[in-house]
Amino acid sequence: MDSITQMALGASIAGAVAGKTLGRTALITGAALGTLPDLDVVLDYGSAVANFTQHRGFSHSLFVLIPLAIALAWGLWRWRPALGFQRWLALTSLVLVTHPLLDSFTTYGTQLFWPIGGPIALSSIFIIDPLYTLPLLAGCLAFLLRPPATGAIAAGLAVSSLYLGWTLFAQQIISDRVQPALAEAGLEESRVLVQPMPFNTRALARYRAHRARSRGDCHWLLRRQYASESGVFPTPP
Ligand SMILES: [Zn+2]
Predict the structure, then answer these.
(1) 88-103 pLDDT per residue, tens
(2) pTM for this predicted structure
(3) Residues 6+ apart with CB under 8 A from 232
(4) Cα(51)–Cα(112) distance, integer angstroms
(5) 3-class DSSP state for residue 216?
(6) Ligand 1 geometric centre to CA of 97 (Å)
(7) What is the pLDDT of residues 191-208, one digit of tens each?
(8) How far is the centre of ligand 1, averaged over its atoms, from the C-alpha of 210 (Å)?
(9) What separation in Å is there between the alpha carbon of 142 and the centre of ligand 1?
(10) For residue 208, what are the β-bridge partners?
């Protein structure tokens, strides 16, 4: 997801965990930690394609982020001992782990278990979706104006999480609707890629269902999309 969303999610989680003790500092710390895994964009993997495909690799791996959360919790606890080590650990681990989990709901996917296995892409939410982000931002804004508004933060987290759950449900509804059409066209065996669009609760019809006759076609569509959105190849007319 985009960096504003990841900052808002990190800040909200940190506010919920430590807002009462640390006030606005909790939100700032959470926002910084929420963007930390994406800082690997400054690394050069050798080519434009490699930079794009290897992003969300080691920096989004639970095997890297969990030890990092423990180390950061220790350092932050030394900096601000008013918050106990366990609370700091809850804050750093929840913020760092939810970042790649959220990314795994997008079409681009995340190598959650790097170096083992490939990317996980649930493909239920578009990479920028204000309906997910705005409730988080509203909760953060309420907190910043009148700290510690942990109730507003919790409400923002609840609404955005429900929306995220809804995207999986919507994806399933669309897949179910596409199946009869495929069967009619004699393509029951096709693999279908249901691709999310922004604001996907507004109209389910905004989901685009790509039909592909084979696994290969499906991957081709996905790769074509990667390439066009990364600017490596122009979008076909
Ligand atoms: Zn990310």
Answers:
(1) 999 999 999 999 999 9
(2) 0.80
(3) 48, 49, 52
(4) 17
(5) helix
(6) 10
(7) 666 667 766 543 343 344
(8) 25
(9) 25
(10) 195
